[in-house]
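Problem 12. The chain below contains 381 residues. Write out its predicted structure in C-alpha cell notation.
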Amino acid sequence: MRRLLVFVCVVVFVDTMLFGVMIPLLPAYADTFDLSKLQAGVLFGAYGAGAVLGGVPGGLVAARVGPKRAVIAGLILLGLASFAFAAAGTPIALGVARFVQGFSSTMTWAGALAWITVGSPRSQRGQTLGLVFACAVAGAITGPMFGAIAKAASIEVSFVVVGLLAVALAATAALQRPARRERLPAGGLPSALADPAFVAGLWLCTLPAFFFGVLDVLVPLALHDAGYGAFAIGTLFVVAGLAEIAVGPMAGRLSDRRGRVVPIQIALACSAVAAVLLGLVTTPVPLMVVAVAGAVSFASLYAPAMALISDRAEAAGLGMALAFGLMNTAWALGVVLGPMLGGGLAEAFGDALPYLLCAILAGCTLAAILSRRRLRTPGVV
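Solution.
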C-alpha cells in the first residue's frame, strides 16, 4: 500500500507540474509567434480544455480497462504529448500538444485516484486523498520553476526528459499490483447523480478551482500594478502553496474522524470571509496575507470533497474510476471559468466584484449544506 501511495503521489506531481509549466514560457511564445492576449490565453487554456473534454471519457476508460491500465495508457499519452511539445514549431502544434497533455491527465488522475481509493481503508480515505492532493500542490508549485529552467536551458531537451520520465513511470506502473476489482451493480451512474451528497462533492471540487482561477489572475495583476516584480509574486504563491501542502492532509484526517461535512463547513466559512477581505483590501502587504489565507481556505475543500465523492460513489455502486472522471470534469470547469469570468468582471467593474461573487458562492453553498439534513447525517457522509 505504501509503495502504491508513493507511486500515485509521483504521478499526480508530474501531472500538475506540467499544468503550470506554461506560466513562464507563455511570454516568450507570445513574442515568438506574435500572439495576441486572446491567442495566448487560448494556448494557455488548451490544457484545461483537454481536461474538460476528457474527464468523463477518461473515467469511462479507467472503469472499463481498470485503474492500472488507465494509468499506463495516460502516462504513455503524456509522454507522446511531451515529445510533441518539444518538437512543436507552430502555436497550433503547441496548443494541440497542451490539449493532449490535459486529456491524458484525465486518465492518469481517474485511474490513480481510483487505484489508491479502492486499496485504502475507508477510515483512512480522507487522509490518503489529502496526501495525494498535497503532492499535486507541490507539482503545481514546481511547474513554473521547471518552466523557467526549461526556458533558460533548452525547452526541447527539457520536454524530452519529461516524456522519458512519463514513459518510465508507465513502466513502473506495470510492475505495481493491480487494483482490487470492484463489483458494481447496474445503474450506478444514475443513482450517484440522483444523490445530493455526490453532486455536492462534485460542486465542491468546481468551487475551489473557480476561486483559485480568480485569485491566480487578480492578485498577480494587482501586485504588479503596485510595483512588485515577478520574483516577489512568485514567492507569494510558493508560500501559499507550501501552506496548502500542509493543510490538505489535515483536512482529510479531520474528515475521517469527524465526517466529511465538518471540514467542508469550516473551509466554506473561511473561504467566504477571505473572499470578502480580498475585495476590501487595497494595499499590497495585507493583500498578500489575505491571499495566502484565501488559498489555504480554498485548498481545504479538496480532500474532504474527494473523500465525499468516493464515499457516495461506493454507496451508489458507481466505479471509482468513473466517479473521479466526473470529478476531473468538475474541477476543469472551475479552472476554465474562474480566470475568464473573474478577469472579465474585474475588467468591467473592478476587482471587488469577482471576489464578492466568490464570497456569495461560498456562502450560498454553506447555507445549502446546513439546510440539507441528509448531507449532515454522520451515517451518510
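Discussion. Residues 6 and 132 are 9 Å apart (CA to CA). Students who got a different answer should revisit the alignment rule from Section 12.3.
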